[in-house]
User: Fold these one by one.
Assistant:
Number 1:
Amino acid sequence: MLFIRDIGLTAMLKSVSEEIRNCYKHAEACARQAAEETDPKLREDLLGLKTAWLKLAQLRETDLSDRIRQRAYEIWIASGYRSDEAEQHWLAAEREILSALQSTRSSVDFRPAVKREAEEDWGR
């Protein structure tokens, strides 16, 4: 049974990692477009988007590890400060945080409102 849970955890980690990689890819695409852009205002906007994508990726990385660390600490305290189970505490915290993240992500529609409305108008 532990093996099945580990597979689910691995899938969630891959999903979060892919999300972070996509942020970096979007930042790179914005930088390329900005380098090719002749309109100074549009170039500035693209560079602003690049910066925003980079910040989002860094926040996702930091937020995830901080949340896991905090939860592992809470589990450690609840276990009576048993340090010989640190790895189990970390893995339990990872499972909890990633499961919560996965369930939140699946229930939220991140598409821009304009795109959602257009798709709804076309019956998608």
Note: The helical segments are 2-36, 40-78, 86-107, 113-121.
Number 2:
Amino acid sequence: MRVLSLEKKILLAFVAGGLLLLGARWFAVESGRAYLAADAKADRLRDAERALLAVELSLRGVESGQRGYLLTGREDYLDPYARALDDVGGQIAEARELLAEQPEAMQLSWKMDSLLRFKLAGPLRSGSGLPQPPRARFSRAAHRKRHPRRGRAPPPPSPAAR
């Protein structure tokens, strides 16, 4: 059996320590890269969430504009409707771009896009012109005929009642 000298033992200890430090450095670098990649992915998902929230807000604008027009017949309600319709396409494209690396999210995005196109091609987007709001059916005269005393002062008492 051969006994190593003290110098060789110290040299082996330094080499083993150096290899251990190299292994720890490799682990730290790889962990840092994985952390940065996960953080970048989380940032992209947050950005996609913001883009989808913008789509939702635009769709609410479409809905409220359409509802306002259909209830009142005033065409100034169509301004937010048209503005929101213009915004929705770009917002969906932005969300799809942010979700490009997520295959399941892309499938849902395409389904959402087809549903939105179907819904947004509704009565106010058709080439046949704007639908007439239901105002004609519920005119004030017709309402007064059905409810003659509502909203008016009571009639003066008749002379015979005095």
Note: Confidence is low (pLDDT under 50) at residues 126-138.
Number 3:
Amino acid sequence: MKARNALRELAEMSASQWGMVTSAQAATRGVTRLDLSRLAESGDLVRLAHGVYKDAGAPSAAYLDVRAAWLSSDPARLASDRLGDGHRGVVVSGQTAAWLHDIGDLRSNRTELTTAVRRQTQRADLHYRRRDLPEEHVTIRDGLPVTTPERTIADLVEDRTDLSIVADALRDASRKYELDLELLADSLAPLAERNGHRKGDGIALLDQLLVIAGIDREAIAKQIASLDGIGVLVARNYLMNPPKIDLAALIDTTALQSAMRAALPQDKQFDALRAALSDTVLTQLPTAKMLEGLATSTWAENMNAALSAQMKAIAWTQLARSAAALDRTWTVPEEAET
């Protein structure tokens, strides 16, 4: 095919995929590999990777090597058609996803892709991971299907990346995105045991990363206050292993104070807490029986709302302090002992 005709055919395809085209796509328009080689030799095309070319006159887009690797993973189909595959298609993941999200100081010398079926490649610059990704674990970033920040952070932990590096990525992600901490904890759950926590305790692993990251207390409080449905059982689990952070300062944040004030009607706040605390020493962590009793009490609906906002990040004694901060006229009786 004449060079002019070949370039016209290629331009129609490359215009919608960052100025790039694969040899398989070119073949559907009658442009042979020999035609592509000649166009590369003449300077009209730039060879980016095996079977992937870029129009030399097209603007240089960011992440060229990632885009080229993704195109080569399903070379016969156009990018516009493949984006509809969503979580069922080939998804950028791992350190490459972290780079696209601009979280952490991570840049691998290979492109990492996740697929639902097992794939192998001899290319040193490309790595495939097999996983069935849920729809909520995939987003679009710079025109590419990419794992969400939550899934990306979990993948970094799975790849045994140093936790301090993962914590840096988590801190960056918390500043750039509104993270779903519940989803992140669920994704971390299978990795908890090998990182020194109880089996399936993704919340504890997440807490560890938050502490390492040193995330701003007010930011943590706002995230906690936004969670729904955590409930008393999660509070019990968390309180058995409270994080080593300045909880006294955390409880005084505006977000947690507002959450409790909104969750408990004024006439219920202190009666409820007084009843719950009357049979226990204030410096003692709550028992499983006591917390489960709270979940079934007559004021459970209001109390659960407060617990989901408050008790994931505070010990039992700080909950009493929070009540006192709302009404300075109420103090815990000195004789309250078991």
Note: The longest strand covers residues 45-49.
Number 4:
Amino acid sequence: MYHSDGTGPVLVVDFGAQYAQLIARRVRECQVYSEIVPSTISTDEIVQRKPAAIILSGGPASVYAPGAPPAPPGLLEAGIPVLGICYGFQLMVRDLGGEVARTGAGEYGAATLCSSDAGSVLLGERQEHQPPPPRTRGSACMACSSIPRSCTPSTD
């Protein structure tokens, strides 16, 4: 299913997060169609759906836990914008050559979700029909300890 303007859906890849439904709902509140798909979906199946973007959800595991679900092979090289949340972010960092480490304590607090890329499909220039940038809460015990070479850090 596509928007009448020809853009594809935002696919939320569910790694077992309690909030995958909430992520999809928030995307829809921005007037963007979204679908939740299982983490076992193949990259070919994702590409066939022609998504505008992909969100890798959180999950109950660390990327280093035995049996932790992997990202679909080749997904990060498919040329589709990807946002990783919690576990999904850990997967992206690890799979792109960075490192994820235990922080020793939970990181709790509020933050505003934003993008330094004005053309970002997910967080780019705000349109009239969109709500203000979302406030988020963090509660993680893992952090990116070494960023992938292909990424540029920002404190904005």
Note: The chain has three helices and six strands.
